[in-house]
Design a protein that fits this description.
245 residues, alpha+beta, 5-stranded antiparallel sheet, 11 helices, 11% strand, globular
Length: 245
């Protein structure tokens, strides 16, 4: 790896190391976008095809994609995902990295539909998948990076960076991404909810948590959906009635 690429990698790790408790995902996503050009990277916790003994019910997604994208994936496409195929699991287990492009060569009809009818409909032509294992608990997460072929294709440098980055991120995934038990909110979502009920504006929340305004808005969309609240006023009332943690 060239010196410039190492510098980019170090900048990502520096940002992650500075992340506040429970705010790892948005910081990681922003750092990957700024320093590596990996836009819209997302995390899947406990993917059933890699977490042995998992029935898939514990799989969680940390992403800034629209909720309807995540819902459609979970309900219709999860098991057609080429990364969950025999070749995909073998590649991820052996190398810690795989791309959608390399798995297409032996993909089934359903797996090709996943790429052609689902991902491409959302502007995704290829996907880089990275395995991250917690050294403390052994839990597995994957970091997915979507690529729009019209703007940028996955190159050898991206694959090398991915293979290097996965193990280096492992220590930070030991506890920081665990969702809270309350409504299934992640720690980051709960932080946003706490600040919303204090009356802070979206820009103020973004500055307080060192995340973008769009990340705040996406968190709020998921918070309202998960809590079943009709609006932010209802969320505020419900949040104030919750038992103290």
């Amino acid at each position: 790896m060239e010196q410039l690429e190492y510098r980019k990698l170090i900048r990502v790790l520096e940002r992650v190391a500075e992340a506040r408790q429970g705010a790892l995902y948005p910081v990681l996503a922003d750092a990957l976008a700024v320093h590596l050009g990996w836009i819209d990277a997302f995390v899947a916790e406990n993917p059933a095809y890699l977490a042995l003994g998992s029935g898939g019910d514990d799989e969680q997604y940390l992403t800034m994609f629209r909720p309807d994208f995540v819902e459609e994936y979970a309900e219709r496409w999860r098991w057609s995902n080429p990364f969950a195929s025999h070749d995909g699991v073998a590649c991820l287990t052996r190398h810690g990295v795989a791309t959608l492009g390399q798995l297409r060569l032996r993909a089934t009809g359903a797996e090709r539909d996943f790429a052609d009818k689902f991902l491409r409909r959302h502007g995704i032509d290829d996907m880089l998948k990275i395995v991250i294992r917690s050294r403390t608990t052994g839990a597995i997460s994957t970091l997915g990076v979507p690529f729009d072929g019209a703007r940028r294709a996955i190159g050898p440098g991206d694959r090398l960076m991915a293979a290097t980055l996965g193990p280096l991120l492992s220590p930070y995934f030991d506890a920081d991404l665990a969702p809270t038990s309350e409504h299934g909110l992640t720690s980051g979502e709960r932080e946003v909810a706490d600040l919303v009920v204090l009356g802070l504006a979206h820009q103020q929340i973004a500055q307080r948590l060192n995340i973008s305004v769009s990340t705040v808005e996406n968190h709020l969309t998921l918070i309202v959906e998960k809590t079943g609240c009709g609006n932010l006023a209802e969320l505020t009332a419900q949040w104030k009635r919750r038992p103290p943690s």
